Amino acid sequence: MPRLLTGNRLETGDVLWWAGSDWSLHLRDAVAVDDEGEALIARLLPQERINDLVLIDVDATPDGWRPRSTRERVRAVGPSVRPDFALPSLPVEAI
């Protein structure tokens, strides 16, 4: 099962996804880290740019990544209290 690395930008709280060489606001840009995930967290953690680094389980779908947990699907969409702020990475209906 694929795994993605996600976290939050320290300055703004934005949800970020590891895109291979840097971070993206969009789930569609994320790359699977699988077995390299723990080493990647160990390398990025001391930089203190991104907090709450976590590996999440996802499913690959024809439309892109789909987080397995409801919590991560909500994080991918954007604030649940303001659907007008939703990100185009994952449709609100996907929650």
Structure description:
With 95 residues, the protein is of the alpha+beta class. It has 2 helices and 5 strands, in the order βββαββα. A hairpin with a 4-residue loop joins β2 and β3 (23-24). The chain is globular. 23% of the residues are buried. Mean pLDDT is 85; it is low at 91-95.
Could you outline the blueprint of secondary structure elements for this entry?
Blueprint: E1 3-9, E2 15-18, E3 23-24, H1 37-44, E4 50-61, E5 64-67, H2 70-77
Antiparallel strand pairs: 1-2, 1-4, 2-3, 4-5
Task: Please summarize what this structure is.
The chain is α+β, with helices and mostly antiparallel strands and 95 residues long. It has helices at residues 37-44, 70-77, and strands at residues 3-9, 15-18, 23-24, 50-61, 64-67.
Based on CA inertia axes, which overall geometry fits?
globular
Number of domains: 1
The whole-number mean of residue pLDDT values reads: 85
SS-derived structural category: alpha+beta
Low-confidence stretches: 91-95
* Strands ordered across the widest β-sheet: 3-2-1-4-5
Q: Kindly state the percentage of residues in helix.
A: 10-25%
Task: Report the order of strands and helices.
Answer: EEEHEEH
**What is the helix tally?**
2
* Cα radius of gyration in angstroms: 13 Å
Task: Report the count of strand segments.
Answer: 5
Describe the sheet with the most strands. 5 strands, antiparallel
* Spatial separation of the terminal alpha carbons: 20 Å
What percent of residues are in strands? 25-35%
